[in-house]
Amino acid sequence: MKNGFYIYDSASLIKPLHNTAVADGEKCMDLKTFVGLLAEKFSFPDYFSDNLDSLEEILNDMSCLEDNNFAIMISNYADFLKSEKPSRKAALLNLFAETASQWQHVPNYPGEEAYRERADFRIYIERCPQAIEDLEELDIPVQGYLS
Q: Are 88 and 35 in contact (CB under 8 A)?
């Protein structure tokens, strides 16, 4: 499987990676709660702050994990980040897409391979019309449908 976004019908179809954060959209209706869940699951360092810039920096490092293979599963997507402005949700999805691409294509620039190897980074979203619409609107490709 390639890095990036996958749409799933049942969580049982997913073979989880070693480091998988599971987010229920009904409980992650704002960015702060969602990022807090990621910080807890992935043991982000103390210097992490709950903003998108800091999240991007951490997700592109992930040296806090024993291995760099990680995934995020989002269920109840229709409620995911419902309390946020649509632009914030779009920024997060674009950040995930860019991060997945970065990990897939290491080295992204000369010398990067000296401190970072390729890694798996997948985002699994439970199938719902809103998820597919959001990804299409942002021109984020879906790597596969697990049904």
A: no
**Residue 66 and residue 81: Cα distance in Å, rounded?**
29
Q: Tell me if 95 sits within 8 A of 56, measured CB to CB.
A: yes
Helix (H, G, I), strand (E, B) or coil at 84: coil
Task: Tell me, letter by letter, the H, E, C secondary structure of the chain.
Answer: CCCEEEEECCHHHCCCCCEEEEEECCCCCCHHHHHHHHHHHCCCCCCCCCCHHHHHHHHCCCCCCCCCCEEEEEECHHHCCCCCCHHHHHHHHHHHHHHHHHHHCCCCCCCHHHCCCCCCEEEEEECCHHHHHHHHHCCCCEEEEEC
Q: In this predicted model, what pLDDT tens digit does every residue of 21-75 receive, in sequence order? A: 999 999 999 999 999 999 999 999 999 988 899 999 999 888 777 777 899 999 9
| Residue 141 tokens, joined | 């490709």
Backbone angles phi, psi at 126, to 5 degrees: -65, 135
